[in-house]
Design goal:
Blueprint lengths: L2 H30 L5 H24 L6 H29 L4 H24 L6
Length: about 130
């Protein structure tokens, strides 16, 4: 990985921490109040986190100049795939393996980070200097 790609990945991870924080707050609030189970609460949190991440990634990580009408649908398609990856990880870890839900979410977050970074880099925020 080139230094430029590494720095962009680090920026993506740092920006993502904000959206992830939003996701974890929603997850914890919905599970601790017994409004939803961990998998459903995590998905709802991921949607809120994705909205935050779009704005930050558009402006900071990828410094996109693309029109929102072009970039946003791509980003949110990647985000939807990320929600699927997140849901599968959460279901397997929290429901099948009985891993505590916050620990399961940490593992799911790592999986989503890796997959969405690649997809956003090569497609949603496609750049020629990637």
């Amino acid at each position: 990985m080139t230094q430029r790609r590494w720095l962009r990945f680090c920026a993506y991870a740092c920006v993502g921490a904000t959206g992830t924080g939003v996701q974890y707050v929603v997850l914890f609030a919905l599970v601790s109040t017994k409004m939803l189970g961990a998998v459903a609460a995590s998905c709802i949190g991921a949607v809120f986190g994705a909205i935050v991440n779009y704005a930050l990634n558009y402006h900071l990580t990828f410094r996109s100049t693309g029109r929102h009408a072009h970039v946003a649908p791509r980003f949110f398609a990647v985000a939807a795939a990320g929600v699927v990856v997140n849901s599968v990880c959460m279901f397997l870890l929290a429901n099948c393996l009985r891993v505590p839900y916050l620990l399961a979410q940490c593992a799911a977050t790592v999986c989503v980070l890796a997959t969405t970074y690649v997809a956003n880099s090569i497609w949603a925020f496609k750049t020629h200097t990637a």
